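Dear all,

This email documents one entry for the complex benchmark we are building for the journal club exercise. For each entry we list the sequence lines for every component of the assembly. Then comes the predicted three-dimensional structure of the complex as a token string, followed by one or two observations. Please use this as the template for your own entries, and keep the labels exactly as they appear.
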Amino acid sequence: MYKQLFEHIKKTCPNYPEEDLNLLLPYFESKIITKKSLFLKVGDVCNTAAFAVKGCFRYFTTNSEGEEFITRFAFNDYWVGEIQGMIHGTPSMVSIEALEDCSVLTISATDYNYLLQNSRPFADFIEKKFAKAFQSAEIRSSEFAESAENRYQILLSKFPDITQRVPQYYIASYLGITPESLSRLRKKSIS
Amino acid sequence: MYKQLFEHIKKTCPNYPEEDLNLLLPYFESKIITKKSLFLKVGDVCNTAAFAVKGCFRYFTTNSEGEEFITRFAFNDYWVGEIQGMIHGTPSMVSIEALEDCSVLTISATDYNYLLQNSRPFADFIEKKFAKAFQSAEIRSSEFAESAENRYQILLSKFPDITQRVPQYYIASYLGITPESLSRLRKKSIS
DNA sequence: CGGAATCTTGAAAGTGTTCAAATCAAGTGG
DNA sequence: CCACTTGATTTGAACACTTTCAAGATTCCG
């Protein structure tokens, strides 16, 4: 559990001091998030962040027609939650739901902000994560420059096992097409 | 010129100390960016940020078909450039072009980073701007949950005068449709 | 073994694209 | 100031792609 979190941190910040890693321990709590439960709901303020040791989540919003639209997925070694809301107390624009039973390490917004203020290495780590998240958001929005078929290929190349873990209609929603269209698109790609 | 920049900063950070504002002066330079010139090119590292006193810019990428796709617009009182690249030296994923003759206040990446390190108020200001930019990127990608017509209406509500300043084929590109489709869509909306 | 959920397939309808031509607008040079 | 050029927008018709709705096949799970 914690070893995986530490590995994750060291991958992002290779010179994160070993002793500072151990200081993090008391702030995290191991939890199971059961399949289909909501980790965060639109409009709520995110008061917990979770490091996904094992699991799979979807972020989604609802459009003006009342249809769900998936904005992103999160898998093992991803952080789940809304950093923005944790820091500034702004209500979330997305909901987050577990697609499997997920094993996570959670940290409260209070402890998170405490560490941000009092641990230089942690603050640097979060800053890097944040920069990465920003880049991902920019990439996500430019994906729509591509055709649905290309978007699907890009998604597959990023997450080769996504078809095993995520129902196809969710992938379709992420791509912005109907499940039927995705089914046909897949059929075409194979032949 | 500078007054406008100061107003902009005070709007974001109401208690930005007056004396710290004046400290910023020597780092900024007033410039004109002529219509159609590139402020930043894909792949280059952004070494200058610009505060748009007056003007209008488009950010764009090129998809795998070689077609341009506009990711966002920037107008008066916007910051133009890639903060990410300025801080981390990463190459830009977008190009930025002036759509009018633009009057801007520029600051070099070096000075920018210097201020970030040495001026607490400036760092706080940038942090807020950054959070805002992140949110905008998230919103931008969820816009594709909506129909082209709704996306157009949303854009109009955000920038009521955009049709006066930006050619329609650029707006179409931003919406992810052809200029012809936008033309028809507008015709329909009016009646 | 059911029953529910998911995925596939078909046909019709809808929507956006393409390509070509016409119209409109703005600026240039005689 | 007008004719001309160039760029931008509109319109039309054929076409391509995606959606919708309905039905059938498949998979998963209690």
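Observations: The longest helix of chain A spans residues 120-142. The CA atoms of residues 85 and 176 of chain A lie 26 Å apart.
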